[in-house]
């Protein structure tokens, strides 16, 4: 018996009981789609974390505590070996308004010109404020894109005057769009000279955040140690009593990335179980089919079908069922991956498609072997006697 | 004339010990080329067991069965399948056509297992259907055919490989008298063409058409 004949008779077998075939196929379809899609979701969330890591910059440290202007200046003058720059920040939430509209509780950050060069916060249009603006405490501001469009929905915010808690500032620049990593909209923000914000809103000495730029990504740990020593000296504390914290954002996110990977594995395992269940469904159906078609097997054997021909026919049926289910499952997964799932854009892993397809067909053939062998090993007379 | 098949002291025992059932107790039988033999016997006589042995659907417990010069007991599973395919044409009481397959497909089936190419398969199957007068029904499925027509398809299927032996097990058992007459006249014609036919029946008028009749009783030829 030749291969096309085997496939043709297998196809006839599969289409013989359409509802049953469709249900079996559905089991495999769901299994394959679940494997691909869940791996894609896990992968997508891992990629999101990775993107956040690169947008933060991998060579910055964040120091949180309470520092005076003098302490910050001392830190800047210390010329630490692994530190490129220290950018102080104060922040507060204020009402920001344009002549046409107003936004409550906008994050207003006071900082120095170094803010725009140390991190990844770049100015998209207009200019950043300068060292001179910081020295003179100029009433200028660089604002985020969301804020710019909500305050000035019709035209450009550049050069316009905005009111921060009642006093007028000139918008000199607009920030590039940022990925939001927390609860706050990173694009609804006002950046103004540190001196200006301290003088008008927060008072002196209330510096709460320092962004420390290490010389390169490998120097982050060394920079962290240096900063800790100097700050303890300046504040008269020890490592036990210090009341500031240094966070290395990239290492924090690396931990997140690791947990995202673990999440992916977990999702994959759950999906693999559903694929296995689909495979068992194939076995079940093949067993029923063999039992139901025992007489047909007997007829075929009486007409000269060899054991191999019968085995081939039933194996081919199992393979057709699982392959069709697998292909449809891949299609379903690819369609599903177009949509955002719980805030995560799934990214299909290249290897997951052949993996899921291969595993589903392997399962079909593996689980199909037993029923097919049972069919093939029947003595023709036994098979013919059954009804 | 040479013997198509020869049975020497063939016994068939099912089960063991006290539960053993001796279906055949020592059958000696030879069928020559061109013979038309009717095997008769009451139910339980062992005639169906004999038929299954003759058709290589079952293997005898002891004794020698030679078919076309081969000792069947010595054949492997694969060789037995080939013998069933090439040397024997089966006709069953309940037709045993494969459902959801056209008459043509059913007749082609033995040729499929024989590895015959598609075009030749189709030609030979159509010719066989023509010989039983059913070429117009080639694309009908079994459930669309009458009992008599189904049995004619089964005869075409048995003939298509040009077998050494035609084996019919109560071929008219499920048919009305008109269809029975049709089938029997086909057998008559096949016999006159020189085919070797063994037919199992319990109807005297069916057995009367054969060249000779063998009676089986209690596992022995009477």
Describe this structure in words.
The complex is a heterodimer of chains A (387) and B (222). Chain A has 387 residues and is α+β, with helices and mostly antiparallel strands. Chain A is built from 13 helices and ten strands. Chain A has a six-stranded mixed beta barrel with strand order 2-3-8-5-7-6, surrounded by four helices. In chain A, a hairpin with a 4-residue loop joins strand 2 and strand 3 (102-111). The longest helix of chain A is centred in the last third of the chain and has 44 residues, at 249-292. The model of chain A has no long low-confidence stretch (mean pLDDT 83). Chain B is α/β, with parallel strands linked by helices. Chain B has a single domain (35-57, 76-221), classed as 3-Layer(aba) Sandwich (Rossmann fold). Chain B is built from seven helices and ten strands. Chain B has helices at 47-54, 77-86, 103-113, 118-131, 147-159, 177-192, 204-207, and strands at 3-14, 21-32, 36-40, 62-67, 70-71, 88-91, 165-169, 196-201, 212-217, 220-221. Chain B has a six-stranded mixed sheet with strand order 6-7-8-3-9-10, with helices on both faces. Chain B has a four-stranded antiparallel sheet with strand order 2-1-4-5, covered by helices on one side. In chain B, a hairpin with a 2-residue loop joins strand 9 and strand 10. In chain B, helix 3 crosses helix 4 and helix 4 (118-131) crosses helix 5 (147-159). Chain B is globular, with a radius of gyration of 17 Å. The model of chain B has no long low-confidence stretch (mean pLDDT 89). Classes of the chains: A alpha+beta (387), B alpha/beta (222). Chains A and B meet through helix 1, helix 10 and helix 13 of A and helix 2 and helix 3 of B.
